[in-house]
Write a structure and sequence with these properties.
By secondary structure, the chain is α/β, with parallel strands linked by helices. It has twelve helices and 13 strands. The chain folds into two domains: 111 residues, Aspartate Aminotransferase, domain 1 (Alpha-Beta Complex), CATH 3.90.1150.10; 191 residues, 3-Layer(aba) Sandwich (Aspartate Aminotransferase, domain 2). 40% of the residues lie in helices and 18% in strands. The strands form three sheets. Strands 2-8-7-6-5-3-4 form a seven-stranded mixed β-sheet, with helices on both faces. Strand 9 and strand 10 form a beta hairpin. The radius of gyration is 20 Å and the shape is globular. GO terms for molecular function: threonine-phosphate decarboxylase activity. It is an enzyme of class 4 (lyase).
Length: 325
């Protein structure tokens, strides 16, 4: 189980540099695509003007096309994380359950908002006025079929399905076939490799989205995020090429790491999870080679690695793993 009060995250590369020194780091501690969509130059409008309703409408149209959901059921936000923080305040109830272990912000945000949270490893045990599943899951890649999602929703007051890592697995998504009491969260920054834009989407019934929008306030998504997000979501060729690359690269990563004696435990196309003799020692050995990985305070042997960007990064990882052995 996760510690619902802890909010540790990957991406803390500044801490890695402070502890281990160096400037030439490969940050594999997140599930952010290291081969990002190529952002064109920003327009003067995106940089200097407040976003207009027309700007946001264009982004929503692009998201509706990508995710298969009606435009009226899509709300852009400053990352899926914004929705995670706000949802506990706009859904009525006191008892929540979270399918765990998973991304720790869900349980933490619920508890901070006053919910009683039960964590369970069994999807059939989810109960309460609100339940949360991450699909596919972070960090182990556990996946639930749309049919199972629908069955869970039948017995829950409201079900939040976090699909932040579903871009490469559209077969898992319920965005286009969402039961009425389900809210789907989509992250833009992870798959498209542009986490700094802080863009994500909540897909739900219009009344709940209106309450979320009121909590988020005006101009919750920046002009550059709207411009880049709209164009990227329409780029089918890049999307298809990224899915192919990530599928192949994640298998290649498993091969390299398995050869070093670590045991694959699952993952997604954007990160892989491995069992090691000692996670802390494994992370520190990689860090001394300038490679930052993700470990978990609640599991002493798990190490998660993002997908390297190219052959040079794979070679550097292979060398570090060989030296670590």
């Amino acid at each position: 189980m996760t510690d619902g009060t802890a909010r540790d995250h990957g991406g803390d590369i500044d801490r890695a540099a402070q502890v281990f020194g160096g400037t030439d780091w490969i940050d594999l501690s997140t599930g952010i695509n290291r081969r990002p969509w190529p952002v064109p130059a920003m327009s003067a409008h995106a940089l200097t003007a407040l976003p207009t309703r027309a700007d946001e409408a264009g982004l929503i149209r692009a998201a509706a096309r990508r995710y298969g959901a009606p435009e009226s059921q899509i709300l852009p936000l400053a990352g899926a994380s914004a929705a995670i923080q706000l949802l506990p305040h706009v859904i009525a109830g006191r008892r929540a359950s979270v399918l765990s272990p998973t991304y720790n912000e869900h349980a933490s945000s619920l508890r901070a908002a006053g919910w009683d949270v039960a964590e369970t490893t069994d999807p059939e045990s989810l109960t309460g006025e609100l339940a949360v599943v991450v699909n596919p899951n972070n960090p182990d890649g556990r996946s639930l079929t749309p049919d199972l999602i629908a069955r869970i929703a039948d017995r829950i007051g409201h079900l939040v399905v976090d699909e932040s890592f579903a871009d490469a697995r559209p077969d898992l998504s319920v965005a286009a076939v969402r039961p009425a009491n389900v809210t789907v969260l989509r992250s833009f920054g992870k798959f498209w490799g542009l986490a700094g834009l802080r863009l994500g989407f909540a897909i739900s019934e219009p009344g709940l989205l209106a309450r979320l929008a009121e909590r988020a306030g005006p101009w919750s998504v920046s002009g550059p995020a709207i411009q880049a997000g709209t164009a990227a979501l329409m780029d089918d060729a890049w999307n298809d090429a990224a899915v192919t690359w990530l599928a192949e690269a994640s298998l290649h990563l498993d091969q390299i790491v398995s050869a070093a004696g670590w045991q694959p435990q699952g993952g997604t196309h954007l990160f892989r999870l491995y069992r090691t003799p000692d996670a802390q020692s494994a992370r520190d050995r990689l860090a001394r080679a300038g490679i930052w990985s993700r470990i978990f305070p609640w599991h002493p042997r798990w190490v998660r690695l993002g997908i390297p960007a190219d052959r040079d990064e794979f070679d550097r990882l292979r060398a570090a793993l060989t030296a670590a052995g």
